[in-house]
Amino acid sequence: MDYIFHIIILINIYIILTTSTNLLVGMTNLLSLGQAAFYGLGAYFSVLALMVLHLTIIPALLFSAICTSLMSLLIAYPSLRLKGDYFVLATLGFQLIIYTILYNWISVTKGPFGISGIPSPSLFGLLYISGIYSFLVLSSVLAAMVIYIFYKLIHSPFGRALKGVRDDELSLLSIGRNVTSLKIWAFTLSSGFIAIGGCLYASYVAYIDPTSFNLDEAIFILAAVLIGGTGNIKGPIIGAVFVVVLPELLRLVGLPDSIGANLRQIIYGLTIILLMRFRPQGIAGEYALK
Amino acid sequence: MSESILNIDSITKSFVKNIVNVHGNNEDERYFIIDDLDLLVPKGKITALIGGNGAGKTTLFNIISGFVESDSGTVLYNDKSNSINISKMKPEQIARIGIGRMFQDNHIFQNLSVLENMLIADSNTFGEIPINSFFRTKKNKEVEENKIEKAKEIFENIFGNNNSFWERKNDKAKNLSYGQKRLLGLTRLLMGNYQLLLLDEPSAGVNASIIPQIMEIIKSFVDDKDLTVFLIEHNMKVVLDIADFCCFMSHGKIAALGTPDDVISNDEVRKIYMGA
Amino acid sequence: MFLQFIANGIVIGSIYAIVSLGFALIYNTTKIFHLAYAVLYMFCPYMILTFFHGLGLNLFISFTVAIIITVFLSVIMEFLVYRPLAKKESSLNIMLISSIGIMIVVTNIISLFYGSETKILNSEISKTFTIGNIILTYAQISQVSISMILIVVFLLFLKFSRFGIMTRAMRDDDVLCQVLGMDIYKMRYVLFALSGLFSAIIGGLVAYDVGMDPYVGMPILVNAVVALIIGGIGRFEAPIIGGFIIGILQALSVWAFSARWQDAVTFLLLIIFLLFRPTGILAERKRLV
Ligand SMILES: Nc1ncnc2c1ncn2[C@@H]1O[C@H](COP(=O)(O)OP(=O)(O)OP(=O)(O)O)[C@@H](O)[C@H]1O
Ligand SMILES: [Mg+2]
Questions:
Q1: By the 8 A CB rule, do C41 and C222 touch?
Q2: Which residues pair with C212 in a beta bridge?
Q3: Substitution site in B33, B69, B272 for ligand 1 pocket (most atoms within 8 Å of beta carbon)
Q4: Which residues sit with their C-beta closer than 6 Å to ligand 1?
Q5: Mean of the pLDDT values across residues C244-262?
Q6: What is the DSSP letter of A49?
Q7: What DSSP letter does each residue of B145-192 carry, written as one string?
Q8: Ramachandran angles phi, psi of C54, nearest 5°
Q9: Mean pLDDT of A16-33
Q10: Torsion-angle region of residue B47: left (phi > 0), alpha (psi -120 to 50) or beta?
Q11: Cα–Cα distance measured from residue A143 to residue A239, given in angstroms and rounded to the nearest whole number
């Protein structure tokens, strides 16, 4: 049973990551290879909140979301002036920089040794969220909240304006909208919410190191979104379920982990290639990447 | 001429093209599209801009609406009270001070519904700040309802009750026909708060039966809404029917200017349009 | 010591320059952001491993066969993935994602068959060569000299051959090329083959010196892409200049600080150029729209 709960918690974490990424990739057509950096920043900021500032869980979540959004704001303005490939490159560069810093700034992040013994967060100082059940509840609540918020955002005038950016920037400019500021909103909101995933991950696993937030992870998050589908709510959720459940299925079939790890990557890779060719909007998505 | 809304003063624009010449070397070639062009666009009238393909008409519109920066010269926009130099302004700022634009190729939001295309064009951007669409839901709902009401009214005023646009309001815009897309592009301008509309060939590529409807709409912009229309048009019948003034653009300058009848009798214009 | 670092920088720089040139060959002409290019760099050494150690062929023959297979893989990528997408007029973002897909698939296939740990091709300690107080291995010297030869031959070829002129024409306007009756798709095969060749040669040489694992390609490619950006997109001399600049700056940062921060130099350069001079050092004159 615990095993299934563990899987559900992982799915919840990935739902938060993919749903947030969808706001950027699916709604605004901004392809980012830097999402793992914000995920990682969220995780490290939450460690700061939990271990140094001794915050309870809700302030810690807010703290890491806000700090990460502020960081993303620093990146957003310069990189959003760039178009197409250049934007992708800027996010890639940023991803690599953050990783290098997390890895090498040993006095603060402990570098490759990682930070262990992250304490169980408490809720209002009343009860401790430690066992798998409490994480199941916490992660489900957070995932549901993130889905709800993004549902509301996508169906609001703001979401409509983002769809406008995706469809036709020129036209949006001609009706007097500030396209850059819309993109900045999408960028910071996306990274703020992805930080919540990072915070959840850090407190659940109780140990983080930079390799969980490297370029491979960024590609993995992006792959999950693109496989599940872009531009609506259900696509990213399906993507999160797919990428978390597939390895477990391979394990159930009896493949040893050493083969399974490569095999599932190969399956992801092939899925992406085939989807891009035959169904670029993903399994359940609404809009293809432009 | 009466009071002018747009004062275009010695605008020059050239493009540089990097080509591979016959020897296989790279070479820059500079050519002038607009060459020291002056023009006053009168307020409250329909002014047509004509000229051969590639004369630079669309480029002039791009300069006015801020999508392209001119090499030199100024564009002054005379608002209700004051005159503003818009030559260095960004497209979205220019749109917000009251210059609306319709593009030569359909630039509507293909993946939004017909109704959403109207709503997004509204001058009120209240709910587009995520905080407003989240926390001030009541006000936001009100604003949205007003926008929908406004869109409905515009459709009814132009196309009559039970019009097909309102019936198809939830269809994706990409499913409309080409002519319908142009009509939508034209009507959505009424959602904004504009003084001057730049229309780039509104009648291009549409069925002859829709052209009278388009002319009606343009005329109603001026007669009912007191707007000014500056329009590029290749269809001389439309120009003769609705334009108050006409200017002919050639070799980067305004070569002839006057009432449509005057301009059409100009030799060079005849050469291009009548093949005579 | 300082000169030794400069020399190391030039060695690394020549690797970046060649990889960057191969990447630019695809990017400048087809606009495909060919991230899967990274796997060609590591694929060739594994082929050498198979023929040299596995089948016991002679080193030179193993090298040649491995290079041919790598070139073939490069062309296969175009044939199976990019070409159908290009025919469908898919967007560049979709090409980029597909490229990531290829990269994931090939990397993991290699890792599945050969394991993900480091493998070495040459277990002898390589002989060194001393000029003044600079010490280089023979492998490093061959990397630099072969890179130089490749670069010079390629640039001359580009300048004077019919193929070179066609490549430059394609860089400028591939629709026009099509109208003028050039067979774009045939050209693209040649370009993919050529870029695969570059990557295979240098990848093989480097791996012969220091060994390889399935993930060696990506860091090199990232540096190569940055080299292209700082050199300037659009011109074929640019990636070479950029490659040497990065190589030397990295070596200097190792000299001045420590090896830990040498990657940071690259990313810093990337950000600086993206922000202040996205057209690169050898700016193609900026074309509007
Ligand atoms: N961004 C650009 N770069 C280079 N040349 C351009 C650019 N934009 C326009 N031109 C050139 O400027 C000239 C004028 O173009 P423009 O679109 O203004 O013509 P037009 O008068 O609107 O023609 P049409 O009646 O066909 O719409 C054309 O020769 C075009 O090729
Ligand atoms: Mg035009």
A1: no
A2: C119
A3: B33
A4: B 15, 33, 51, 53-59, 104; C 288-289
A5: 88
A6: I
A7: HHHHHHHHHHHHHHH-TT-HHHHTTTSBGGGS-HHHHHHHHHHGGGGS
A8: -65, -55
A9: 94
A10: beta
A11: 14
pLDDT, residue C289, reads 31
pTM, rounded to two decimals: 0.90
Instruction: Name the token pair of C116.
Output: 């993900």
Residue A217 CA to ligand 1 center (angstroms) comes to 45
Predicted local distance difference test score (pLDDT) of residue C258? 80
Per-residue pLDDT for A246 more than 80?
Answer: yes
Residue B175 CA to ligand 2 center (angstroms) comes to: 25
Residue nearest to atom 20 of ligand 1 (CA): B54
A97-133 pLDDT tens trace: 899 999 988 888 898 899 998 888 878 777 777 788 8
DSSP classification of residue B113: B
Two tokens at A57?
């869980």
Contacts with C1 (C-beta within 8 Å, 6 or more apart), sequence order: C133, C255
- The residues, any chain, with a CB within 8 Å of residue C171's CB and separated by 6 or more, are C28, C29, C234
Residue B204 amino acid letter? A
Tokens matching residue A62: 């807010």
Residue that the structure tokens 């996508």 belong to: A154
**A289 pLDDT exceeds 90?**
no
pLDDT at A257: 80
Residues in B 42-71 with any Cβ partner in C closer than 8 A: 68
pLDDT score recorded for residue B137? 81
Return left, alpha or beta for B252; rule: phi > 0 is left, psi -120 to 50 is alpha, else beta.
left
The mean pLDDT values, 10 residues at a time, for chain B of 276 residues are 83 78 66 90 92 89 92 88 88 92 90 93 86 82 90 88 85 89 90 92 85 89 90 89 91 88 81 65
Q: Which range, of A125-129, C69-73, C115-119, C265-269, averages the lowest pLDDT?
A: A125-129
Share of chain C above pLDDT 70, in %: 97
pLDDT for the residue B276: 47
Separation CA A105–CA A107 (nearest Å): 6
Place of tokens 């001393």: C130
The answer to whether residue C225 neighbours chain A at the CB level (below 8 Å) is: yes
Between C277 and A11, the higher pLDDT residue:
A11
Q: Which of A234, A246, A242, A240 is nearest to A14 (CA)?
A: A240
**Nearest residue on chain C to A25, alpha-carbon basis:** C93
DSSP chain C: -HHHHHHHHHHHHHHHHHHHHHHHHHHHHH----TTHHHHHHHHHHHHHIIIIIS---HHHHHHHHHHHHHHHHHHHIIIIIHHHHHTT--HHHHHHHHHHHHHHHHHHHHHHH-SS-B-S--SPPPEEEETTEEEEHHHHHHHHHHHHHHHHHHHHHHHSHHHHHHHHHHH-HHHHHHTT--HHHHHHHHHHHHHHHHHHHHHHHHHHH-B-TTSHHHHHHHHHHHHHHH-TT-SSHHHHHHHHHHHHHHHHHHHS-GGGHHHHHHHHHHHHHHH-TT-SSPPPPPP-
Asked if residues A188 and A72 have their Cβ atoms less than 8 Å apart, the reply is yes
Q: How far is CA C268 from CA A24, A115, B140, B201, in A?
A: 24, 27, 44, 48
- Is A163's Cβ below 8 Å from some Cβ in B? yes
The domains found in chain B, sorted by start residue, are: 4-18+29-272 (3.40.50.300)
How far does residue C170's CA lie from ligand 2's centre (Å)?
27
CB atoms within 10 A of CB B57: 24
pLDDT exceeds cutoff 90 at A16: yes
Q: What ipTM goes with this model?
A: 0.91
Cα–Cα dist C231/C281, whole Å:
5
- Which three-class secondary structure state does DSSP give residue B236? helix
Contact B144/A at CB under 8 A: yes
Q: Do B126 and A182 lie within an 8 Å CB cutoff?
A: no
Strand partners, B250: B253
